[in-house]
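Lab channel / #folding
Pinned by the channel admin:
"Please post every new chain as: sequence first, then the structure tokens as a reply. Keep commentary short and put observations after the output so the thread stays searchable."

First post following the new format, from NK:
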Amino acid sequence: IANGLVRVRATYALEGVNGAISVCYTLNCEGSIQVKNDLTGIPDTMPRIPRLGNNLVLKPAYDQVEWYGRGPHENYQDRKTGALVGRYQSAVSELLYPYIRPQENGYRTDVREVILKNKHGHGIAFAAAENLLSFSAHHQLNSDFDAGNQKLQRHTYDVPVRPLVNLNIDFMQMGVGGDNSWGATPHEEYMIKPGSYSYGFIIKPLRTTVPRQAGGG
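Reply from TO:
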């Protein structure tokens, strides 16, 4: 397309709900990628949507996290007033909250930018574009925290530690709920209604310049 940009679009049919998701990647000569997601055709008769976002798996070396958003502790859209917006950093392993029953954990909301890098400072940054982001990063896959259709009565020590960094870059996730301490669904304003959604973010490479040693070494 114009101005030296390259655009790639992938469209997936969501046959189970008669909808579609289109993911558009716009790349520039500096290595930045603008990602735009368009979810369409979801009937309003479908159940509420638990989460909207993108999932990526990175090499385990990228285990240092910096973010500009709510923190330092985990927070969700209906559990965030005590988490102030600021700049925070952590190891990926420290983002996990070890609930005795494995479940969703370690989430951060209202994020302007999140960076994952290795010990040399090389890495990748995800910046908000049209909307604020939410994220979680673990050495586990999302499915490792899921009890599945049959509850297996697992505990924290049953969750594996994998040689990877599993990153969720989200538009939003439904609230936690549980106002009665057990079983209550999130309030209506913290639900994600079925329908069409458009959201995106920017991916940027991070590189450090190694200073030259004296004598040209």
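NK: The two ends are 42 Å apart (CA to CA).
TO: also worth noting, DSSP finds one helix and twelve strands in the chain.
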